[in-house]
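tool=predict chain=A
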Amino acid sequence: MAEPVRPEDISSPPWQPGTRLVVGVLVTLIVMVLAYVLRNLVVSVVIAFLIAYMLDPIVSWLVQKARFPRVIATIVVMLIFIAVILGATTGIGYAFSQRIVDLAALFSDITVDIPSRLEMIGDLQFSIGPWDFDTSGISIEPLISDLVSSISPLLSQAGSLVGSVAIAAASVITTFFLDMVITFYLLLDFKKLRPALVRLVPETYREDFDFLLEESNQIWRAFLRGYIILALIIGLAVFITMSIAGLDFPLVMGLIGGLLEMVPMFGPIISAIIGALIALAQPANPWGLTPVAFSLLILGILTLIQQVENTILVPRIMGGNLNLHPLAVFLAIIAGGALGGFFGILLASPILATLRLFFGYIYSKVVDVDARPGPSVEASQPRSRANLTKIGETAANVWDRLKKMAENSVED
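tool=predict ok
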């Protein structure tokens, strides 16, 4: 019986450059085809990796500070995350279901009143300046018949629409739990991913690759940390202002505002539009305004919150910015939406910054210049002590003036 071959006894000849090139191209094509065929699974893996990337600092903190075993810490964090996501989505779904019911009832009332309204138009008589108008001679029966025939197909498709929504909801739930399973296993060994990736690179390029990974980590940390803090602050601000304004479901509106804060440029606009639509469908408000006026009020409040965010919060809260031109971000959002849908829009900015980093490295190698450019994340400049002193003096002067005005009014 032949003895087994030991690994150290194997002398494998190196491949020729042409062989390496052909095999590399074939492997790349196979990976691209598999990624396209299994694109739904690839999207789930990417989403799970991003969730694990966000939750790993919490798990690591529990392991280091609270002395939890890695498995127990992962289970605790995953359960809390799932509970928060399910609670938020349930609340949003409940709010929208209530709004849909109200809008359906409003639509039903309108369709019932349309014939009588049209008959009133048929007897309408009015004058504009020297001209007199009389619509009694106009036959509106063909108009009513055409209107009914147009609405009937929409009503007949309501059942199929409900079925499609139910199928889509089941698909989303299945995908969500698949992502949670993948996230759990990624979190268990998340600290081992980076060393494993570095070992795949030839030894002469490991320092460069480790540098690129560290820069990418800074990009994504700056993006996630800043936008999570912004989402929490904006969500709380929207909840408080909508409660004071008297909008229905203020907590759900706060959740919507916080979640859509993660969508660059368009997220706050969509949030404001949703709030205006909810106000428009609300039957009554504490201010006695008409639905249109109340909707404009809500739109104005949400727009004001956006302006405060853009001018005050974003420069202060974002610990580092990605140093991207607004036009580049806008084009990246359009491309991300075309290629990756909602998640492509959501992650357009950090992906663009990461691609700029890697393509910058490739360009530096091609033209033979310094392969390590400056940091991809530019830290925000802290306020100087002089600026803080000036702000304090201004606040003190304003306070003194207000106090003198109050004293003068009391003396008068």
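Residues 22-123+141-195 form one domain. Residues 380-388 have pLDDT under 50 and may be disordered.
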